[in-house]
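Trying the structure run again after the queue cleared.
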Amino acid sequence: MKKKLLAMLCCMTLAAASLTGCGGNAKETGAEATGTDAAAPADAEAPAASGGDVKVALITMDSIDQHWVTLNEGAQQAASELGVTVDFLAPNTKDDAQQIECVNNAVAGGYKAIIVAANGPDAISSALKEAASAGVKIVYVDSPANVDAEATFSTDNKAAGTTAGQEMIKALEAAGVTSGDIGIVNVNAATDSCVMREEGFRAAFDGSGFNLLETQYGEGDAAKSQSIAENYITQGVVGIFGCNEGSTTGTGNAIKAAGNSGIVGVGFDKSDAIQNLIKDGHLLCTMAQNPDVMGYEGVKAAVAAVNGESLGGSVTDTGVSVINAAALGEGAADPAMNSGATASQEWKIALITMDSIDQHWVTLNEGAQAKASELGVSVTFMAPNTKDDAQQIECVNNAVAGGYNAIMVAANGPDAISSALNEAAAAGVKIVYVDSPANVDAEATFSTDNKAAGKTAGEEMIKALEAAGTTSGDIGIINVNAATDSCVMREEGFRSAFEGTGFNLLETQYGEGDAAKSQSIAENYITQGVVGIFGCNEGSTTGAGNAIKAGGNADIIGVGFDKSDAIMNLIGDGHLLCTMAQNPDQMGAMGVEACVKALEGESLGGAVQDTGVSVLTK
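Done. Tokens:
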């Protein structure tokens, strides 16, 4: 009732609000971030409000789901920091007419910006166009409409839906189930975010023995969704997927009521109810978004736009985590493991990356050292000066001999250092992976969803080639080696993007992550007449860009991975189209925190967390 009253009060406030002015502080922007996670303009220094109190309207799909409440909390935090006003306006249920009314009230109330999670891509488009025509800045959070906006902060819902499907398949196959019907409970057929989740989920089952039933819609209402799920259960389904918080809660409640632990329930969004259903075994897992980040970054972008900054319509993926029972074990209620670590002593942690030269690893170490200082532990950065299995094995052995309590490692490959890591674990050393895991159980892993990011890289190249009128031709790929799991997954995702196209992907060449070797490989590709080159890591990307630059051939599309000054300059000068920028500082910081938690006796359950990626373009 309080939430309903709040929504009504917000509508009244908007309708009665008076116009307030705001001066513009125009600033030039750097690289535009499109794609995923946090290298977009929202990650820049927080914009300062100018010319009085900037008024921003936050319009979500409803005011009830915990997802939107949390999004508002993030927005209010940013508003407090920036000295602006954010009014949370939302219907008490998902309703297009009510959402349109809220948009119109925001315009009439003199709000300078609207942050909106659209019910669907078209329903409120006319209202948003009128708002934009009136000079109101539009920023999307969670779900965009088909109207240009200053920026969008949302989850890569299709990729997250595929992950949900993969999690269900793994659980079913582990139980010996390789066929059967799967039910899907969605919100409606128009909400873009949920449609994409379903599309990704269905894609995961392509080629499997499972049969995905016709989707049923519960409007995001937990009770309606429970009834739908109960009907699915009577049909004998082996699994049910809920596409949002209400759908997931209803699915879990139906499985709980039926007392059927053999049905695998997978869902979306994070709430106390969903987490309890996971803990009690009625749901396998849920895809947890970061709505607070959406709200916080959305307000920053809105203020920047009002102040005259051009954000270029950037699209930022705010990340997702898979929350399962292991992640919600005793003492591990937050699977992101980004808070709550305390050290009872100065634990010694060894950080062993693939090399000590790439800026990616240097940045990862910086994040690790910052967290180590915060927690009062020591982190020793020990890495070969080049990618070499023997040297990395020696580093692991030295860490054990040196009495280190934990090892954070980015493995060159899944198998090469496995024996050394097994010996370290047998000696009581805690293992945490950053960037690239090996085939040895660890406390936790913090890395990029490399396959999804590689596919994004391929899609970016295809778009650029087709925009230039090129629909066929050879594509070269420069990888590090055939063993480094992260880079192998990037290549696999990149190649998958070209399935069914007229392009021909050449045999991969390996440059060991060395920029000079990679440049030679790229130059050879160029002599073969390729139309595009993909570099799978920092050195590969730098080499590809340098080769395109040296050849003076602007028609070749270069796409890469990782972020460094050299790569950014190559993008700025037009020799590379874009790069997939990871967040190595987050990997380092979260890895140290996980090490401390494990050393203090906390079970992290082998949790795997995606630390996100952004597409950086000129």
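Residues 157-174 form the longest helix (18 residues). Worth checking whether this holds up in the mutant runs.
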